[in-house]
Amino acid sequence: MQTEQRVEIIDVLRGWALLVVVISNYLYFGYSPEGKINGESVVSEIIQAVERFCFSAKGWTLLFVLFGFGFGVIYAKMQQNAYAFLTRRMLVLFGFALFNTLIYDGDILRDYAFLGLLFLCFIHLPARKLILIGGVLLLLEPFLQAGIDKIDASYITAQVNEITLLKFSHHWLDIFKYNVMSSYYYEVLSLPYSVTAHYVMFICMLFGLALQKSNFFDNLTMQQPLLKRMVIGSFLLTLLLWGIAFALRFMQIGYQKYFPLHYWIVIATMVFTASGIVLLFSQGKMQDVFKAFSSVGKMTFTNYIAQNIISFLAFQGAGLRIFHYIPFHFYFMFAIMVYCFQIAISYWWLQTHTYGPLEWLWRQLSATGKKTAQLIPERIFVEK
């Protein structure tokens, strides 16, 4: 029973993270190249505020925590054989990342693959060492970010501006070219992403692996007192960090140049929402909502790629061309609609299949021995 619960809560968190990701990613298309939105209204302002305070960067940080957790699960099952298997798995992921880059200029799969290969050097460490390393790196993050942000990156913006027209082209090849080049400029050449963001992603993976090594999710009922402290503590920390940021800004103290708090706020908020979900789940509350999250979370890879394919067909020049001239709240509602559709499709698919289509394909391409069955044997998959 505890094993089923542990797997279930991980899928619930993945499903929640994908909801955050699709909202943030689709709202991105509601902004003009100048960073403006259409339809200035109270509703749009509320959506912008909620996205900024609750969603922005909170989805991918949680997914990287869960990615590190997954590494721990595989290592616990395979031990020394895990290194070869995970290496193949990350190399295959690079191939999926290439496809995803063609349709979306914010691809994150190659970050998983790259950091996953680096992470192999850490998967043997015990939980305490992982927490210590992650904690020290997190404390140092503002100094790294401050140093990186001082480097002039105006040339990157200039280069992207030169290819902006490709984004609005009717031709697929032009869109592919824009997405690849934009990803290269903003996610490889841009140091705030290629250095600082990857640094934060790696920290999240360390904490995720530590959670698995410490068997944190094995008995959530016993963890409820700790979960309550995490919810309260992370909430208060988030409020404190935002209070400091607003106070310093009000006093016109340029703290961002020397000690930016952005990622501390992001991680504190992510911990608050994630621990809150785990606590509610452990108390048996909101079961229908968590079941929906779980269905999507079991097919995280498939659903993430599907979200990007839909955004390509809807928002980019070779598709329906729903650019930023649509009222801003439309992109939020569209994201919710897509996610609800994915809940239904995921639930239907998992009635007869063990894995999502791309999860299964990824396993097949990564395996060298006996291939993984996809159809569920009769009576094995039973939900009450």
Name the features:
mainly alpha; disordered N terminus; globular; 384 residues; 74% helix
Explain what you see:
Helix content is 74%, strand content 0%. The protein has 384 residues and is mostly helical. It has helices at residues 2-28, 42-55, 58-78, 81-103, 109-119, 127-149, 154-167, 172-189, 191-213, 220-250, 262-282, 287-297, 300-315, 328-349, 357-366. The two termini are 13 Å apart. It has one domain (2-366).
Instruction: List unreliable stretches of 5+ residues.
Output: 1-6, 377-384
**How many DSSP helices?**
15
Radius of gyration: 21 Å
Number of domains: 1
Overall pLDDT: 89
Helix content: over 70%
Strand content: under 5%
Largest sheet: none
Termini gap: 13 Å
Computed structural class:
mainly alpha
* Helix-strand pattern: HHHHHHHHHHHHHHH
Q: What is the count of β-strands?
A: 0
Shape: globular
